[in-house]
Amino acid sequence: MDKEMEQKKASEAATGEEACKDPKELAAEYEEAAEQLRKELDEKTKEAEEFRNKYLRKCADFENYKKRMDKEKSALVSFANEELIKELLGVLDNLERALEHFEESPSEEAAVNSLRSGVELTLKNMHDILKKFGLKEIEAKGKPFDPTMHEALSHEESEEYESGVVIKELQKGYLLNERLLRPSLVVVAKGPSGKRESETSN
User: Fold this and answer.
1) Which of 15, 38, 79, 173 is deepest in the core (most CB within 10 A)?
2) Residue 70: how many CA atoms within 13 Å on its side-chain side?
C-alpha cells in the first residue's frame, strides 16, 4: 500500500514538473522524441526493404536455377542415346554395303553368299555394340526354367530333358546392366505321360 502511494506521488510530481515547464521547452522535448522515433522507423523500414530485396534476389536465383536444370534435363533426354546411335550407324553402313554387294554380284549364288556374309557381319557388329552398352543374352535352352528370367508359352513331353528344363527358345531374352529387359519365351519339358501313369500305378 505504501509503495503504491509512493508511485502515485512520484507520478504526480512528474506531472507537476511538466506543468511547470515552459511550453516551448516541452514542445522541443516532444519534437526531439518524435524525431528519434522517426529515425528508428526509417532504419527499420530500410532494414525491411533490404530483407525484401534479398528475398526477391533469392527467388530470382532459384527460378533461374530451375530453368537451367529444366534445360539441361531436356538436353540430357534428347541426347541420352547419342553414343548408342553413333555406334549403330556402323550397322546401318554394313547393311547398305551388303545390299550393294548383293546387287553387284555376278550370279545368284554369289549374291546370296554375299548377302549372307553381310548379314552375319552386321549381326555380329550389332551384338558387340549392344554388349558394350550393357546388353546380355539370357541363357535358356537346356537350363532349368526360371520364372524371373523365362516366360513359358507351353509344356511338351520330353525323354531327352528332365521335367522343368527349357527345351526350346522361341524368342531370346535379355538383361540390360543386369536388370531384366525382356524375358525369354520358352517351351518347358514335362515328363512323358506314360511314365507318370506307370509311376502313379506303382
Assistant:
1) 173
2) 6
